[in-house]
Amino acid sequence: MRAVFVDANDALAAVTERLLRAGDPPVAIRRDPAVKPNELPAVLGDAEIAIIDHTYLPTSLAVQCRDLKHVIFLGTGAWSYMSPEQLGERGIAVHTIKGYGDTAVAECAIALMWASAKGFARMDREMRAGHWVPVEGVQLTGKTIGLVGFGGVAAEVARIALGSGLKVIAWNRGPRVLSDMKFLPLEQVLADSDVLSMHLLLTDEN
Questions:
Q1: Does the pTM of the predicted model rise above 0.85?
Q2: Domain of 46: which CATH number?
Q3: How many domains, the chain?
Q4: Are residues 87 and 138 in the same domain?
């Protein structure tokens, strides 16, 4: 089998080269993070494995890659870049890195929540313009954060929020039970939350 890393930047290319071992399938590393989706059939050629960091792979293009059998997606939110279900129906398996980026994305969500509550962005703009504008920030300790969807990222948001003195409630499509937080109907989460954090796939329905 032959693999092509279709959109490596210099850092990822160096890591890939360092990790390759004798006996591994050959991997062609393309240092082209700006590759366009419509270029992928030509880039992959007869390769059976596509390694993708961030490039969209519509099903209509994937089926043009005649020998493609596996897609290894390195980023977070594979469903925002491709349809693993549709690809699977066409004999192309999508492989993701379980838990990759969960903590980093959750920390970003928490940081944005604090920055918004305290008005940091507005204060920064005003200070740079030479103005001192007092901002009435929101104290989040004791407030309730509602999570809509509860996958790996939301679980990390819940962990950090609980450790920061917030109450956590959540809605999830499937049943979940955790001892330190409540899962409630969506309407109640929307009504009872001081802060809402969305953790759903980007679909037409959502």
A1: no
A2: 3.40.50.720
A3: 2
A4: no
CA distance 11 to 139: 40
pLDDT at 203: 74
205 within domain boundaries? no
Q: Identify the three-state secondary structure at position 197.
A: strand
Cβ neighbors of 128 (< 8 A, separation 6 or more) are: none
Output the pLDDT for position 80: 87
Residue ending a domain, choose from 95, 128, 149: 95
Mean pLDDT of successive 10-residue stretches along the chain, which has 206 residues: 96 95 94 96 96 96 95 90 95 93 94 95 93 89 97 95 96 86 95 96 76
Q: What is the DSSP string of 89-154?
A: HTT-EEE--TTTTHHHHHHHHHHHHHHHHHTHHHHHHHHHTT------PPP-TT-EEEEES-SHHH
- The answer to whether residue 22 is domain-embedded is yes
d(CA 57, CA 37): 6
Q: Find all residues with CB under 8 Å of 54, minimum gap 6, and list them.
A: 7, 33, 75, 81
Q: For residues 144 and 31, what is the distance between their CA atoms, to the nearest angstrom?
A: 45
Please identify, among 66, 95, 124, the residue that sits at the C-terminal boundary of a domain: 95
Residue 29 lies in a domain: yes
Per-residue pLDDT at 72: 97
Q: Report the largest interatomic distance among the alpha carbons of the chain, rounded to a whole angstrom.
A: 63
